[in-house]
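Quick illustration, no need to memorize.
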Amino acid sequence: MNNRATNTFRHATHDNVPPIIDGRCTVLLLGSMLSPKSAEASFYYAHPQNRFWRVLSAVFGCECPSTNQEKINLALSHRVALWDVISSCDISGASDSTITNVKYNDISGLLERYKNITSVFTTGGKAHELLMRYNQDINNSVISNAMRLPSTSPQNCKIKLEELIAAYSAIAKCIN
């Protein structure tokens, strides 16, 4: 039986969650789309088992933030911006493999406004695939050189925390 037929799709939008960014940011981290828990919290990587904030704090040698404001401060104090590739889509649960009907965020417009951003990273394979598809039409060199990082999602449990920290350390190298 087709898995898609048994899954419940939701129309996910990014309307209530703006990018985390300021004029000092030099790195842009792009996910695919907010998970249901993140959408519910109106914040990035909000699922309690998602390892994103543990990884980012380890990369920068900081205490792991617990509040949204602490998470914003962690990212911005290290010149890291956060956003998602997708503005809206249909998706089953948090499974990127089920994403359809994609509408993209205006990433090229963001890069035009924030010219200090010289490095782009994606937090998973689907985010990278969609970013490259988006870039086919605009041919932005910063996007063309985006580096794919492994997903920190609880669904990607085969990658250990230490491996994620090692992979995400590439971010710190771009900032320093």
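The CA atoms of residues 67 and 127 lie 25 Å apart.
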